Structures are given as C-alpha cells and as structure tokens.
Amino acid sequence: MNCCFLLPFILGIPLIWPCFTATEISTTEEVEHPMGSHFRVKRGWMWNQFFVPEERNETNYHIGQLRSDLDNGNNSFQYKLLGAGAGSIFVIDERTGDIYAVQKLDREERSLYTLRAQVIDSTTGRAVEPESEFVIRVSDINDNEPKFLDEPYEAIVPEMSPEGTLVIQVTANDADDPSSGNNARLLYSLLQGQPYFSIEPTTGVIRISTKMDRELQDEYWVIIQAKDMIGLPGALSGTTSVLIKLSDVNDNKPIFKDRLYRFTVSESAPAGTSIGKIMAYDNDIGENAEMDYSIEDDSQTFDIITNNKTQEGIVILKKRVDFEHQNQYRFRANVKNRHVDEKLMEYHVEASTTFIRVQVEDEDEPPVFLVPYYLFEIFEESPHGSFVGMVSAIDPDQRKSPIRYSMTRSKVFSIDDNGTIVTTNPLDREISAWYNLSITATEKYNVQQTSAVPVYVQVLNINDHAPEFSEYYDTYVCENAGSGQVIQTISAVDRDESSEDHHFYFHLSGEDTKNSSFIIIDNEDNTAVILTNRTGFSLQEEPVFYISVLIADNGIPSLTSTNTLTIHICDCDDHGSTQACRNKDLMLAMGFRTEVILAVLISVMIIFGFIFLILGLKQRRKQTLFPEKSEDFRENIFSYDDEGGGEADTEAFDIAELRSRAVLRERRPRGAAGDIRSLYRQSLQVGPDSAVFRKFILEKLEEANTDPCAPPFDALQTYAFEGTGSPAGSLSSLGSAASDQDENYDYLNELGPRFKRLACMFGSAMQSNN
After folding, report:
1. 474 with 582, same domain?
2. Which whole-number Å values give the CA distances from 33 to 40, 453, 538, in the listed order?
3. pLDDT tens column, 94-136
4. Domain end marker among 139, 155, 183
5. CATH of the domain at 180
6. How far is CA 404 from CA 57, 393, 407, 409, 422, in A?
7. What percent of the chain has pLDDT over 90?
8. Pair (474, 456) in one structural domain
9. What angle is formed at CA 526 by the lines to CA 524 and CA 531, rounded to 5 degrees?
10. In 3D, which of 391, 473, 380, 508 has the Cα closest to residue 434?
C-alpha cells in the first residue's frame, strides 16, 4: 500500500512534504519549497517520516491523518497505531486515521519516534494492507538558554601584566539543535569588569585591558553574559562570574619608616650580643618581601642579621666595645630585597637607608694586664728573695682604682702589692725546670673585680751536679788474666742541663794510679775502659778490688765526682769466661730474694691468722654473753629426785644448826662499795665446816677472778649447802622488778673492772626507763 502523510507545521509555516502515492489526495495546497520554488502537492499518505514542532503548550493537538486508498468513507476500515509512544504519547482516531499528540514533546529529551500503521477491515477483522513503518521527528525551537558548565571560574594573573595578556577562557553550552538555525549560536559579552578586562565575543577569552597594581586592589569580579541566536531579538542568555586574582611581583622595594634608630650597649657585653632591632616595610608579599640588611662601609664592630620569620634586622656586636676608648658609634644601614627579577630592577635602583646611633654604657670592669701572659727566667740555687719578674695590671675605668696582686698556692714564690715576684725557697732545676703560676689582680675599690694572668717561670741551669756512673757495674776478672786485658767499659751521666753537649773526662785517683792493678783509658766519647795492669790474680788472697774513678764534666765551673768500681776475682773456666761467676752471684741473689719473699709471706699469714683468731674469740664471746636476746637473766632453778625425810629426818643435816644460824634477809639499800666487800668476805665464812666444799668454792672463785672474759651477770654455780642468808639481801633478779626502779646502781662503777659491764647494763637500763 502506497500512501502519503501530512506534515502540518515546520517553525509555524504550513508545509506538505511530497511523496508518491497510489491513492488520491483529498485536498491540494500551494507551499514554498525549501529551495525557493513554488509548487502544488496533493495531501495524502506519507509513510517514511513526519515532522512535529516541539514545545506545544496544548495537548491532543492534531498532527496528521492516515488514510488508505481502499477507504471509501463507509467507516468499514479501522486504523491502528503501533510502536514506541503509541497510545501514551500519540493516539489515532480508528475511524478517520487522524493522529494526535496527547503529551508535550521535548526535542532535547527525544527527537525521533518510529511508529507502525495498520489498516484493518472492521467487518472481517483482517488487515486490508500490510503493516507500514514511518518516523515522527520533533523539530527544534529556541527554548534553552546558554549555561556555563564549569562554574565557578577563578583565575590568577600577575600584577602589572601588559595589555592583551590572556586571563582565562569561559565556555557556555546551549542544549538547542546547533543545526537548526541560530538557536545554539552564542555571543559573549562583558557586563562587569571594564575597563580592566575585555572578552572575545565568539571564543569567551578574557584578556587584560590595562595594567593593574596588586597593592591597590588584589582581586576583581567579572560578570560574563552568553546569548544564543547570535544576539538577535528574542534570544535567550545566561551569565557567570569570574574571580580574577592578581599575584604579586617584586615591584616595591623595602623602605625604612624611621630615619634614625638609637640603641645602647654595655661595654661588658660579649661579642654576639643583640643590641636592638630595625624594621623596613615592603608592600610586596611572600618571597618578594624577603629582605637583607647591611651596614655601609663594612663596620668592624657591629653587624646586622635578618630574622627570616619577622623580616626584622637584628643589630649585634661583632666584637666588644670599650667605653674608655669610644663611647658612641654612628653608622648607616641599608636594606634590599633578597629576590629581584632582572625585568624589575628598575624598581630597585636605590636602596633605602637609615642611621643607627649606639651609645656605650660604662661598666666597672676588672683589671687588665698589659700582656696576656708573662715569661720569666731565673737561675737555680738563687738565694731567698731573689727577683724573678714584675707583672702589671691597670683599671680600665675612669676612676683608675689601685691594684693589689696575689698568687695562688705557691711555696717557692711570692708577690707584693707592686706586682714584684721573688723567690721564697731555693730552686733546683733538676727537681722542677718550670713553674706555672697564676697571678690575680684585684681592684682596691671593688674587690669583686678581679682578673688573672698566667706566669711561666723557667729555672735556668747551673753546673751544680757532678757526673756519675750511668749504671751500677758488676765487674769480674779471671785469676789468670793477662796484663792489658779489657774487663769493663764505663760511661757517665750528668743531671745538669748543658747548652752544649756533655763531655766527660775519666781517670783514676792519684793513689790508685800509683799502686793500682788496673788502669783506665778515656775513649773521649763519654766512655772509658778498665784494663788489667798486671798478670795473674788470687781469689784466696784478694777476692775483691776497689778502685776510685774520677769523672769530670765540661761545665763552668767544672765538677768532678769520685765513683767506686768494684772488681771481683773469678775462678774462670777453661775458656776464660766469667759468666759462671756472674750466674753464681745471680743465684745467690735470687736465693736471698726468695728467702726474703717467703719470710714476708709467712709473716703476713701469721698476722692474718692472729686477726682471725681475735675476731673469732670476740664473736664467741658475744654469743656466750647473749645466747638469746629474749632470755631473762635470773637465777637457775635445779630440781632433784631425792626426797628428804621431813623434819624427823635429822641425819641429812642438823636443822637446829641451820635454824640457829638462819637470819632473816632484809632488803638494805646498796649504798657503799665497802659494805659490799665486807659482806662478800662474810659470805665466804658461811657454810658447813668442810674443807672439801670450801676448797671447791675457793677454786671457783679463783677461776672467776682470773678469767678476763667472765660475764658480769648470774652464772651457773654449784653449791652443796644452803647459806644462812646475806645481810645485804639477795642479788637475784627474781622478785626485784618492783624495787629496782627506785634504786641507784651508780655504785657498781666503784666495784672494779669486773662489775663494769653490770654497771653499764643496769645504769643504762634505769636511765632509759626513767
């Protein structure tokens, strides 16, 4: 089935799209062809495409009509619409074939719909013609304004940039069809931002129109408008804002706000002391505001360093100042930026300057020695009070206080108030060749102000020591030695110091030269050799020879010493070697040394053994005196298994005799030591008249008297009888607790050494109780 379809409107203009049909179109209409010509077309079926204008405000508006060539108008045909949107967006009149849009169409949501049309005979229910497909296209209208999708916009551009410098490009988007007229063609314009910025109308590129200074204004808000339809009437528009910030360039030099700075500094301030701060201001920021301070003419006394955090200049001392030498300083300081681009050097031609005045404050300074150290020389053996040297210090202050001098810990030198150093004891270079002294200077007006200086005294040598043998010589000569045989080489040393090399002269004493069996030859190299002067020696007749060797030095005056050389006669072996004699003497010496060492070791062992014995006895004594800390000192109680016969038993002892001698024991005050001694003697006479018991008691008493370690407290004693009582009362601690507190035991100190410990125990106990 061939048919045509009706296109009612394109952009509001009636239009019939031509197609070839097999049916007659009911009406004709003259239209303007898009190519500019006019022609007449019949309205009928159009099965391939169909245009519908978008954004129609009304619903159920007529789009077109479908009509079959076989439809004779008797309403026997039924038209159906199939496909996406059929029934929901588009509906069809089943009798007439008219198609209606029941919803608002938006090309930006969907621009094309593909549908299918079918004609059915209502009487038979069969399709009259095959199903045909057609397309409905939604035509565009200008219903979308331009939009900036990359908002917000922000740009940074250096200050003082030249005209035409690119800042940023903004871009707007129009959702309309760009192929449909000018709906999506945009033009950009500047609503706010003149005269500093401009924008290209077609590209949206923003450029600088004039130079700008960040220090005057550091940011700008620019408003951009975009219009579609190339700005024609009825066009839609959109706007956006652009924040443009100016970045800093170093176009400002630092400047001092103050033309003069005044500071003060104490003359006692050490080098490196901060005396003040100066400040320059720079309108730039960040790295462009970093600055360096300097002093013109490169001062030797002061310097300026920069605090990188605060950009302040700190004035410091390079060396100490002296009020008496100069009390005021005046100099000029400069400041410059640390980082300057060559293109911006025109802004930094002249550096900003300021003046600095420093006033030096006077302080009470310690004395100052004229030199940092002193070096004196003096000959050894100089007499007491010899002059060594003189030190001098002055008060640098204006009042010029007198100075007193003192010396620290010296037994050889002394110093007076004038700084004169003298000797107090003889000097010996061989004992000490150098003396290091410390001299202290003290102000008389202020003793707190002191200073010290080192003094080095060199003791010069004089020839006061004669030369002597360099070592001990152990010389041997064989009995059968011949004349002229060398038996020993000797050398000498001198403790004196010589400006020239030492030279020694060797010869024998006058007596040995005439009668000696030996001679000496000086080698003139500070050594000499001893030779035999005869043939044959006798070990039995003369086992040892002693010769006197005179040694002289080359000092001024020359000194000579006499040294004795001992020569032993040796029974040499067949080879004439004296080594056997030397070994024998060595063994004897070693044996003697061994005996001495053994004797010393035995003595040490005996001493340690004696010490350990004493310590052991003391420890044992302590254990005997105090076997247990908790043990009470009281009389011991003895129990016996023998039972007496009672009062009727008169064989064991005479009760009458006991009763006749029984005396009531009354407590008496312990007053005098003489009373105790008399009572003690009476107690020895009490008891049975038996020599055995008396002898036993006396033996025990003698042991107690002679034993220095006997304890002064109650001990175990065995008695074979019961005494009749003591006029002094009982000495037992039993039952005495109630009365001991009222008694004075100081009399025990008078009873002798055996009661000393008892006196200490009872006397100290009573004092602590009281």
Report:
1. yes
2. 10, 123, 169
3. 888 888 888 888 777 887 888 888 888 888 888 888 888 888 8
4. 139
5. 2.60.40.60
6. 119, 9, 11, 17, 16
7. 32
8. no
9. 70
10. 380
Return the bridge partners of 584, or none: none
User: Does the residue 545 lie in any domain?
Assistant: yes
Mean pLDDT of 346-368: 91
What DSSP character marks residue 448? T
Average pLDDT over residues 316-321: 93
Which residue bears the tokens 């035995």? 602
pLDDT at 201 over 80: yes
**Range(s) of the domain holding residue 507:** 468-589
| 3-state DSSP helix/strand/coil % of the chain, to nearest 5 | 15, 35, 50
Torsion of CA 70, 72, 73, 78, to 10 degrees: -30
Question: Which of these three, 574, 589, 604, is where a domain ends?
Answer: 589
Rounded distance between C-alpha atoms, residue 685 and residue 693, angstroms: 11
Concatenated DSSP letters of 479-540: TTPPTT-EEEEEEEE-SS--SS----EEEE-HHHHHH-SEEEEE-SSSEEEEEE-SS---TT
Q: How far is it, in rounded angstroms, from Cα 78 to Cα 68?
A: 10
Phi-psi region at 286: left, alpha or beta (left = phi > 0; alpha = psi -120 to 50): left
Q: What is the pTM of this model?
A: 0.43
Cβ(140)–Cβ(55) below 8 Å: no
Mean pLDDT of 441-453: 91
Please give the torsion angle defined by the CA atoms of residues 394, 400, 402 and 405, in that order, rounded to the nearest 10 degrees. Answer: -20
Rounded Cα gap, residues 212 and 41, in angstroms: 68
The beta strands (E) that lie in 177-218 are given as: 187-192, 197-199, 205-208
